[in-house]
Task: structure prediction
Amino acid sequence: MNLGELDENTEAVVSNITGDARFISRITSIGLTPGCRVQIIKNDKNRPVLLYSRDTMIAVNRNECSGITVTEVRK
Result:
């Protein structure tokens, strides 16, 4: 599933990032890399996804979410 499909208060692990070199460089520079854990704080449709990862709050727009594949962590 991609990042935009997760519900609020859900934890996941980034499993893959796909896209052009510019996109991958930008996403990895803000700390989203394969293997990192994320927690979805806010996921309102038609708005950026607000997430918490590596002690940082990050907003990722909807188009970018489609290039970030995650695996949900079951509690």
